[in-house]
Amino acid sequence: MSALSLFEGFGVELEYMIVDADSLNVLPIADTLMQSVSGRFEDVERGDLAWSNELVAHVIELKTNGPAANLDGLGDKFQREVAYVNERLAPFNARLMPTAMHPWMNPLRETRIWPHEYNDVYEAFHRIFDCRGHGWSNLQSTHLNLPFANDDEFARLHAAIRLTLPLLPALAASSPIVDGRVAAFRDVRLEFYRHNSDRVPLATGHVIPERVYSRGEYDAQVFQPLYRAIAPLDTANVLQEEFLNARGAIARFSRGAIEIRVLDIQERPVADIALLRLIVATIRALTDEQWTSLDQQKPWAEERLERLLLATIRDAGAAVIDDADYLHAFGMGNTRAPAAGIWRHLCDALAPQMPQDEMEAVKTVLDHGTLSERIVNATGTKPDRERLSRVYAQLCDCLAHNTAFLPDGI
pLDDT averaged over consecutive 10-residue blocks of the chain (410 residues)? Predict the structure, then answer.
């Protein structure tokens, strides 16, 4: 992406769990799946899309094979790829499951670290952080990579993304259940995520990245302190790379992009792409200074934005945003508003940029709540295993058949 300017390309990554088709327990056969297609335990390239492994062997990542010129048609392309993956999994009595966390996985017992290529990096993470925990082995997300060509573009993009991050769980939360119980957080994946590197707190920081607006500043204020902090634990220098940075949006200067990592994955690809399109339109409006100037966007302290992020992690769209300056930054005159109301305002303002099928997916969220809220509506607040199994089987069907998840009739 290094040659691309703002919004000239889009890198999208969707992570899914592989589960047993009957029990819905996690099934660590991503390596077997990839080998069955390509004969190797390596990335599978299939035209515009590709597959990759992740840290653990029950997760498969579907991604654009390089940056896509735009988001048009990506939902359909990913949906066809989901169908093909499910077809390849069928002989193993397996299928893909959506949502950002498995509802009853026991990471201590069921984690299997990817044993093939890149294993030295994964084992280094495992040795330092112990990846047998929900924050490492039980979280699936949607990643969005947006390009920048130089420091000026990086500054504009980074400022806009920092400002937008607190709102993202209010749109994309899909992880309300862990260890078989409804959690106190509607985005419990992010609650685990922000603590998964507590042994080296600089790895995640405040999740909201620091106020740095050039490559030199980023290296001096983020990378170098982080590399020094990990060095006593990483004596082989395996982790002294950009990927060690675990903030909610990370600068990937090696590819000329910022990667947004706080998005839970949805029940079907068209929903993911629809939410991404609305998020991109919001970020683009900020970089264009539609509601507030770059000089007004830059000074926002990560601690101030983190407070808002923690509210949406807990309550998703129902979170009350009570910072009038923040609302003003998105063109609202209110002194307080529910986070879902902010997205409704943004959707109304940016609707002309949304295709009809994607607009319907966004309206599902705005009218019926985040996927997380819809899941809890379906399971109730104290579900038993049978109830969870029925709901998550329906979510698997939504992914397989490209249908929106609505709790009616479960």
Answer: 85 98 98 92 93 94 97 96 98 98 97 87 91 93 98 98 98 98 98 94 96 97 96 92 95 96 98 96 97 97 98 98 97 94 94 82 95 97 97 98 81
Distance between CA atoms of residues 69 and 77, nearest Å: 14
Alpha-carbon span 201 to 1, nearest angstrom:
29
Question: CA–CA separation, 339 vs 29, rounded Å?
Answer: 39
Q: Supply 324's token pair.
A: 């009038």
Residue 216's Cβ-count burial label (10 Å; 0-12, 13-18, 19+) is exposed
List of residues 6+ apart from 134 with CB closer than 8 A:
101, 105, 107, 178, 188, 189, 192
Determine the number of helices (DSSP H) and then strands (DSSP E) in the chain.
18, 12
Whether 270 maps to a domain, the answer reads yes
Q: Is residue 230 part of a domain?
A: yes
> Alpha helices of 194-246 — where are they, by DSSP H?
215-218, 224-230
Nearest to 53 by CA among 117, 141, 136: 117
101 touches 396 (CB < 8 A): no
| Distance, CA of 134 to CA of 388 (rounded, Å) | 18
242 contacts 374 by C-beta, under 8 angstroms = no
Host domain of residue 202? 113-401
82: tokens are: 């989901």
Residue 285 sits in a domain whose CATH number is 3.30.590.20
Q: How, if at all, do strands 337-338 and 320-321 pair?
A: antiparallel
d(CA 236, CA 171): 40
